[in-house]
Amino acid sequence: MHWVPGSDRLRAVCHCSAARDFEDPVALWDWLLAHPSGHRPAVPEPTPVPAAAGVS
Amino acid sequence: MTSIPRDQWYVAAYGREIGPALFSRTVCGESILFWRTASGRVTAVADRCVHRRFPLSELPTRLVDDQVVCGYHGFTYGADGRCVAVPGQTRVPRTARLSTYPVVEQDSFVWVWIGDPVLADGTTIPRAPWLTAPDYTTVSGMEPLAARFGLLVDNLLDLSHETYLHGGYIGTPEVASTPITTEVDEAAGIVYVSRRMADAACPPFYSRSTGLTGRITRWQDIEYAPPCLYKLHSRIAPVGCLPDPDGTDLDAFHVEVVYAITPETEHTTHDFWAVARDFALDDEEVSAFLAESNRTVVLQDVAALDVLERVVASEEDGYQELSINIDTGGLAARRILARLAGGRVHQVTS
Ligand code: FES
Ligand SMILES: [Fe+2]
Ligand SMILES: [Zn+2]
Known about the structure:
The complex is a heterodimer.
Chain A: E1 2-5, E2 10-13, E3 19-22, H1 25-33
Antiparallel strand pairs in A: 1-2, 2-3
Chain B: E1 8-14, E2 23-27, E3 30-36, E4 42-46, E5 62-64, E6 67-69, E7 76-77, E8 83-85, E9 103-106, E10 109-114, E11 137-145, H1 149-157, H2 162-165, H3 173-177, E12 181-185, E13 190-200, H4 204-210, E14 216-225, E15 229-238, E16 253-265, E17 268-277, H5 284-315, H6 328-343
Antiparallel strand pairs in B: 1-10, 2-3, 3-4, 5-6, 6-7, 7-8, 9-10, 11-17, 12-13, 13-14, 14-15, 15-16, 16-17
Bound molecules: FE2/S2 (inorganic) cluster (FES), fe (ii) ion and zinc ion.
Organism (chain B): Umezawaea tangerina
GO biological process, one term (chain B): methylation
Domain Rieske (chain B): 9-112
């Protein structure tokens, strides 16, 4: 499970590759933890997310 | 119900705190008695005599040849907790025994297992190898915190507070204004929060220790292994200086900031902190400066969290918060902690 807050929006990426953007981290968490409910395979998103460095 | 996860390893002390003398510390509400035996091993037993509950850490209790003689009526215990002598009779009741705690001494810390000893597995303890590595120099300390451990977890997982609470020490405007990446390894139960500032002002904490004067590339990579061990991998380098593709990184300064977050009670915490660096290894002045600065920063957090605890405790269950993007890591940590605390519910009256 993995997500990338970038700009003011938060992008959640589940391990199943479903992705969704949020404005509220609490809602983001609820969605991530609800897997698989409501998780559909990611559709390429038009919103650019600033390049986020990987975690070492 | 307690919010403190049980069946977990917690840091109880630095190894240097425990010698051949009785030493007591409360961890997760349990008062534990430690000493270092003649063989050099740290032993941990309950700090309450089985007879009338006298705290064995209190005078006139004595340690004689690795045996504890209770200062009240003289019950005598071995390092394994077994009672070997009672006053006035030769028969020692079979049940006369202090409960013992699994202990592992590692990376300068003394870890104790709080929970069912049968479940203790020392190989699962998270590591902080820099604290004893020969190519690093470490300064460390511990500050008592009159706040629940969850408030310190929140604090450490959101370093944007450095800009406000620690301005002039470790905070600069870029910390609060640089977006973070948060990642959770569900299987391993680890939270990663990463903030990488490409072009940032150098705070005094790093300019005075590294000697860098211009603007810097500053990476803060947090790795939190709930409940106890928090690591901040900090990389400081001149602007534009990145590690080589193969990972070698000779031109950067690396500081490993390690915290052990140990609940003392439901509402108090032992705030262990350590700063390990891979530069100026023998420079006593740098050591003294980093120790003094980090302690100051920790005490700024302690002052703020002590106040916050009083507020939160007075509002208790109904209290309202508002979370924003910077809180993603803290929220992730809270979820894991709640899961750990609920995994095996242990009723503790707080
Ligand atoms: S309380 Fe310890 S011997 Fe009586
Ligand atoms: Fe802080
Ligand atoms: Zn999913």
